[in-house]
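Usage example:
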Amino acid sequence: MILQIALLAGLVIFSALAVLARDLLKAAISLAVASLLLGILFFIMNAPYVGAFEISVVAGLITVLFMTTIALTKTEGNVRESKAARVAFPLFFIVFLIIDILVMKGLVGKIPAAASTPDQGTFGEALWKMRTFDLVGQIAVIFAGVFAVLALFRKRSKDE
Amino acid sequence: MIFLFIALPLIVAGILPLVGKISKRFLPDLLANGVFAVLLACAVFALRPMIGNGPVVQQLSWLGESVNIRLVLDGFSLLMLFVVSLVSLAAGLFSIDYMEHYGGKANYYSLFLIMVAGMNGLVLTTDLFNIYLFLEVAAVASYALVAFGLEHDELEASFKYLMLSAVASGFILLSIAVIFGLTGGLSFEAVSSGLAGLDVKYPLAVCTAFFILGFGLKAALVPFHAWLPDAHPSAPAPISAMLSGLLIKVSGIYAMTRVFLSVFGLSPALSTVLMYLGVISMVVAAFLALGQKDIKRMLAYSSISQVGYIVLGIGLGTPLGILGGLFHLFNHALAKSLLFLNSGSIQQSTGTRNLDEMGGLAKRMPFTAATTLVGSLSIAGVPPLNGFWSKLIIIVALVQAKHWTFAVIAILTSVLTLWYYLLIQRKAFFGKLNERWKEVREAPFWMTAATLALALLCIVTGVLFALMVKDWIQPAADVLANGVQTTFSLLGF
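Running the assembly step on the lines above writes:
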């Protein structure tokens, strides 16, 4: 229990750091740490596949991509940032915590713990046989992401 | 055949960037608009006869083995597919000329097609998690499309839209997770039958609240509307038309209606909340629209206001109310896309969106002026155009259900709507021609053709409204009026 609370607290702190850190590199590392903690939490809660994906993809692969990008690009002076964010974020966070305590505490107790389902087969079977439609959606999301990057980083053609 | 609506746009979206290497303009124009035309023809000629005897379930198979892709087509999803295909075709044709100066046309159409595939997937699925997934497909494509111009404003608007939309998706996903915990299932029928056997008032209320927040943000209901007046005007005009005409309706109203009416069942309390949200959006956004100088911002606020009408009708929950809401959804999709496309024509010809700088444009752009007038009067609810009938049905339904105050507010808001639309007419098109616009010309062929087609549809739907209601709207309204029974009838499949 204490371990879980510590992990959750760490998750919140590093997620907040990822948003608030001014240095992009520090933000990327905070995100990786947050995701690592989340992955460990998934392992503790008996979801090894999710945990493995979280750690390998978000903590590993994406961090590598971020760092490569940050290393390859130059900073272009200071970006002006509204001071309101510094006040708004903690305020919003406290409001969120209050709602969380009021709502979720009552809610979580009322949700029956999902029975472990060993007879549903392996991860691959579950993905391929039960959630096939999700794969179509996944492909579409990846397409959308790739084309979004192509569109937003395109070179303006010469006739403009 | 039904799966075509998701697969075809996705496949063409995948090959378009390659095609774009061979032909920068012609082939992407042809392929993308070909897809929209094929889908529209499919919806009208192939799918409509299919649902004569109730909903059709399509189970896909892969190499002889059935896989878990199950699509359900009923009156409501058919209506949405029809609207999506129709408006996409108009916006696609408009893009042929309009997107010339943006560059990257193949890429643009790819994103456009993915957005359409996402909306079609959302409409056809019967699984809560798939709803979330396709919501994201359409949303991710739309973020990029809003920022397609790459100017400062567009990037800022896209970022704001991305942030608020992510919050909405977060709440929707959270609610889906709680429901999965409660019922152990994600498909509509599993959730519906699971909830029927449980006494879970409090968790269900929390889920409902999260869904209202999430879908309300997607549909831009007041007070969740802050992103829309930035995002919709900043996008290229055909994308503004798609976002205001379709996306807020599919990912906001369609998803919300499906979940609340067909899966949860509309309780009196929920009905009241939806109606109040509808009325507040209707009135507040109408007043906000009045003060706008930017024509696209005014149209964006008007979208929020009209979405209020739709939610008011559907939230009322009576068969007539739902009918009116859905009919207004259809009419608003046509008219608002038309108006956004026209705002694009004006912007391209004059280089400005500021209403105060325009004036007398009707002399130089007669087609644009005439079609804008049709769209404006349609949304304001002037007979015999289509918007009049749908507003009339909503108001009659309100009176029938003895919601006198709401009925009066709906009528008064309609007057307000007419006022700000007449402001557009007066400032942009009537009066003396501003010296600056002496050289202005009518929009190119495809842009004018697309807007003329939409304007004609507004008039035809208005004149033949009985036919339209009987063939398309009534089957959709019947599905929703049946409530959770519709979902239970899927259990046998």
